[in-house]
Amino acid sequence: MNHLPLENCPLEIVQLIANHLTARQKGVCQTVCRFWRHLFISLQYYHVDLLGRHQFELFLQSIEQSDLIGSCVRQLYLDYTMLDYRQLATLFRYCPKLISLSYKRDITTENDAYQMIPSQQIQLRRLVEFQGLDVTHCLLYGGIASHPQITQLSLSFSGLGSKVTKEELIAQLDKMPNLLELSLDSIALTWHDLESIHACCAKLRALEFSNTTMCPEGISLKEKRALENQLVTPAKWLHSFRLRNVKDLNIHFEWMFYIASKYPYLRHIELWQSFSVSTSVEEDMHLKKIDDISDALSRIGKHCRFLKTAKFLNIHMDHRLLEAMDAVGTSLEAISLGDMSDLTLSLLSHLGHSQQNVTHLTVWGWPSLCMPGRMEELLPLLSQASHRLNHLTLSMQFAGIKNSPCSLDQLLTYCSRLSSVELNGFRVLCQPPDPDKTHPRASIPLTSLAIRNGGLTTTLLDRLDPFCPQLESILLDSCDVIGDSHTRQLTIHRPDRKLKSLQLSYLYSPVAYYHRFGSKSNAIQWYDLTMGDQEHQVFELKEYEYYQSHLSFDYEQKEDPLHRPTQCVHHGDIELEPYRPSVSIKCRSLLELRIGGFPVI
User: Fold this and answer.
1) Which helix (H) or strand (E) segment is 11 a member of?
2) Dihedral sign (CA 377, 378, 379, 385)
3) Rounded to an integer, what distance in angstroms lies between the CA atom of residue 423 and that of residue 452?
4) pLDDT for 361-400, tens place per residue?
5) Are 136 and 155 in contact (CB under 8 A)?
6) Fewer CB within 10 Å: N-end or C-end of the chain?
């Protein structure tokens, strides 16, 4: 077995197996024999995520010096890394088996003369390009008549310097006959564009359009309504259709007639109308002709009877959509809703009276939700939305309001069957249990908690321990740790509990006010871990660099610029000075720990 060539055991198969192993188990596998050692060492380079320019340059030096590393790379993700043509060509030359690439390149400069990369070197199956579209240009004009290996394509036409236009891409999509998933960003979309896409790619399973302007197909209301019965050829194989942060969808509601007729076999639909906090909701809703929009949306509910997931943001909805779904026997598993007004409360009430007993519910918060009494109205409606509900997401991401208070203990009191909760944009609070009383929430089956872009008190997770004994997965991302001047440590103390996953990223030191600056000086860099009877370990995040994430869709409430770490250092068993802001973790066992995006366990 020590002499078997690696080709006898493809890395793709080993990767599928390794997905079910912990880092510790992978280390044990390397000790079995020499062949397994080479196999799992090679597997380390199968999927490579590079954060920033510095990491990319080190990776480029590695593949130029070692053919082994480049030959093992199958999937490469470059986050906010600018490439020139020479570096891009080097990637394909030294990584001949690269099948998945996601990257954003810089605009061409005078010293960066364009060079066509030989399309024979490009064996990609999945491509994500945010700017420039150089690889796409090589695929379309590189001299090869067809690229049957490509199954997923995601392109952004934003910015300057793009080598390919939307019209050129659609005209030559027939070179990718096996394309299954297509995502386009920053375009103006017409019915003719969609018909052309389906004519070239008959096997499409998923379509997504982001930051898109919906072009009108009728001018007057009479013309728009007349399009309700226009005949189109159904796309029988398309199961997923997403419009994210699109403009004028509510005004040009004839698009909903088209979607209903064109895609009757959809399993997943997502319609997100762009929202501006500077626009009056009442005025905006008047301009959209509420009845026409509701009728058009209910037609989707009537025709798309195989739906399992429906996501709507800033789209006016009422009982007609839910009644249409009930009438044709649609049984949703997940729904996301929110028209960015108090009408969301009414829609939740209708959801509770419908036959749609969903297991996953996402509610998009609106600006007035932070007013006194609004959250108290929302919580009972959430508990009545579905008797099968076990996954709940509340998000203020688009509301323009940060750190709106949310009482987690009250939420769990109303929704006592939840196994997963995600809160985005909230200041999460929890009252300590009364030691003299048996706590009514002692049997809550909560196993997963995620808090993003908000705040939490230093003792929040400790207070959850008595009535959430099954909590085993915790994610904290871009959060302020709220405390007084004497408390400088976030505690996750569950010494008698076993944790499966703990992910901590972009945590900021305890402050007495609820604002995040995103600066290096406020970031928590020290993490103290104690598991069972083992000696405690200390980790430090170092070498911070300026970073602003690339968003898959553009909107007004963008994330703050960040300073992210590029290194996580293990210091072993050392004592931390009490004045250092830190995170203290105590548990019986922990299967996965990620700090600042770095896998520690």
Assistant:
1) helix 11-18
2) positive
3) 6
4) 999 999 889 888 899 999 999 999 999 999 999 999 888 8
5) yes
6) N
How much helix, strand and coil, in percent to the nearest 5, is found in the chain? 30, 30, 40
Per DSSP bridges, beta strands 360-364 and 334-337 are parallel
Alpha helices in 157-288 (DSSP H): 166-171, 191-200, 221-226, 254-262, 281-287
Please give the helix or strand (H or E) that residue 348 lies within, else none: helix 343-353
Q: Which pLDDT belongs to residue 544?
A: 82
Spatial contact of 146 and 178, defined as CB atoms under 8 Å apart: no
Query: Which residues lie below 8 Å from residue 175, measured CB to CB, with a gap of 6+?
Result: 139, 140, 144, 145, 146, 147
Q: Quick check: 364 and 393 in contact, CB under 8 A? A: no
Give whole-number Cα distances, 88 to 29, 67, 83, 84, 314, in Å.
34, 17, 6, 6, 40
pTM confidence score: 0.86
Alpha-carbon distance of 218 to 431, in angstroms, equals 55
Q: What is the pLDDT of residues 175-186, one digit of tens each?
A: 999 999 999 998
Helix, coil or strand: residue 59: helix
Exposure string of 22-39, with b = 16+ CB inside 10 Å and e = fewer, is eeeeeeebbeeeebbebb
Q: Is 488's pLDDT higher than 90?
A: no
Q: Could you give the domains of the chain?
A: 1-44 (1.20.1280), 47-106 (no CATH), 402-601 (no CATH)
Strand bridging mode 537-547 / 526-531: antiparallel
Which is nearest to 126 in space by CA: 185, 75, 162, 187?
75
Query: ∠ CA 398-474-357 to the nearest 5 degrees?
Result: 65
Q: Report the alpha-carbon distance of residue 462 to residue 413 in Å, rounded.
A: 17
pLDDT for the residue numbered 142: 75
For 178-220, strand residue ranges (E) read: 181-185, 188-189, 206-210, 213-214
Identity of residue 582: S
- The helix/strand/coil state of 421 is strand
**Which tokens is 237 given?**
């194989």
The DSSP bridge partners found for residue 529 are: 537, 585
Tokens matching residue 299? 């037609």
Which residue from 114, 103, 109, 111 is spatially nearest to 81, judged by alpha carbons?
Answer: 103
Looking at residue 106, what is its pLDDT?
53
Q: Strand 473-482 to strand 448-452: parallel, antiparallel, or no bridges (unpaired)?
A: parallel
- For 528, list phi and psi in degrees, rounded to 5: -110, 115
The set of residues, in sequence order, having a beta carbon less than 8 Å from that of 63 and lying 6+ positions away, is 69, 70, 73, 90, 91, 94, 95
Determine which of 201-215, 453-467, 541-555 has the lowest per-residue pLDDT on average. Answer: 541-555
What's the chain's length in residues?
A: 601
Give pLDDT tens digits for 390-446.
Answer: 999 999 988 888 888 999 999 999 999 999 999 999 999 988 766 655 555 557 899
- Six-digit token string for 402: 């940060």
**Rounded Cα distance, 248 and 455, in Å:** 34
Assess contact for 401 and 425: CB atoms under 8 A.
yes
Q: Which of 547, 563, 554, 562 is nearest to 82 (CA)?
A: 547
Q: Indicate the Cα dihedral angle 82, 149, 141, 114, nearest 10°.
A: 20
Token pair for residue 372?
A: 């006194």
| Token representation of residue 267 | 């399993």
Residue among 98, 100, 105 at smallest CA distance from 83: 105
